[in-house]
Amino acid sequence: MEASVDRRKQPRAPTAGNGNANGVASAAAEEEEGELEEEEEEKLRLRLRANENHKPESYEDLQMQLEFSPLLFSSLEQYLPFNMLHVSRELKLQYMRQILLRYSPEGERARVKRHKEYRQKIILNYQPLHRELYTMHEANFFVPSFLKAIAENTEESFRSIMAEPSPGIYTFEMLQPRFCELLLSEVENFERWVHEKKLRIMRPNTMNRYGAVLDDFGFETMLEKLMEGFICPISRVFFPEVGGSTLDSHHGFVVEYGVNRDVELGFHVDDSEVTLNVCLGKQFSGGTLFFRGVRCDEHVHSESQPEEIIDYSHVPGHAVLHRGRHRHGARATTSGQRVNLLLWCRRYLFLCVYSLKNLQDA
Ligand SMILES: O=C(O)CCC(=O)C(=O)O
Ligand SMILES: [Fe+2]
């Protein structure tokens, strides 16, 4: 098994979106007034260090016209040269956009554009069944023990609700049964709608034939809050080596296993820094999650040590939190139906800015 480990990828453009696929191509921006002279374009540079005192602009209102995430522009702004910090927002935008365009492959931008249009079509037409799920209501979503631990926000309080069956794998009770039930019925409602409309649904990633991307049908803001308010505090304590407290984007989806669904999931690593995996139900047997230790890219296929081999049986409402690079897979769900909520948490904006600066310095 150790011979082959897939990198489980979301079918998306890593450099053009922010993991939330909120960028769309617009040729119009090129003809905007105040365009930079060609000569100046040659000098487009980012500073080595962020200017922490600079408060970046918001570009959210331009979301529909921009081919990159508004958040990416805000992150990048802190790295602008001093003389660019106080020019107009339009000029800053143009400066940053030209840098981004230089390093972002066109094919990926086109893919992000298509994804954005797909999402827009859904958001405009899909009628949610349980609207109360789309905004964060923590008292309705989470069990009290989880809320208490988060409110206390200490390593001790987190450990008091968690088991750590193997180093770096944390399990705990998290979601209320009622929330799981409603979310399952919302997902079913969405899938019914997709089927009725004869839409081609985009699956969560390259290894699933079933399941749905929650961010695509309205859950983006709620899941953002879940990551920021609940997963970042825990990751800050347990996953500092992957920037646990600075996770800045996510990919949220459900996977579905059972008869007429996916059966199992091969050995893989996730396209995330930190992964939250919560079982929503329903009733099932099998579906055990197996882990085989954390590896870097170069050693992802190496043998595992006996102490790294661990199995975990999903329990509805209970979460598993692990590093994306903690190699794992799921055994066959042999009867019933198993649905899990996955939140791949990333440091996408940070890594984007970092790789841009590296490319510039190369
Ligand atoms: O089925 C599971 O619980 C594992 C899912 C998983 O690893 C993933 O979606 O990346
Ligand atoms: Fe995974």
Automatic annotation (TrEMBL):
Going by the UniProt record, its keywords in alphabetical order are: Dioxygenase, Iron, Metal-binding, Oxidoreductase, Vitamin C
Bias class Low complexity marks the residues at 12-28
Q: Which Pfam families match?
A: OGFOD2-like (PF25238)
Query: MF terms per GO, please?
Result: dioxygenase activity; iron ion binding; L-ascorbic acid binding; oxidoreductase activity, acting on paired donors, with incorporation or reduction of molecular oxygen
Q: Does the keyword Manganese apply?
A: no
Comp. bias (Acidic residues) = 29-41
Region of interest (Disordered), ranges: 1-43
Presence of the UniProt keyword Iron in the record: yes
Q: Which Gene3D superfamilies match?
A: q2cbj1_9rhob like domain
**Where is the Fe2OG dioxygenase domain positioned along the sequence?**
248-347
> Which cofactors does this gene product need?
L-ascorbate
This chain's protein is named Fe2OG dioxygenase domain-containing protein
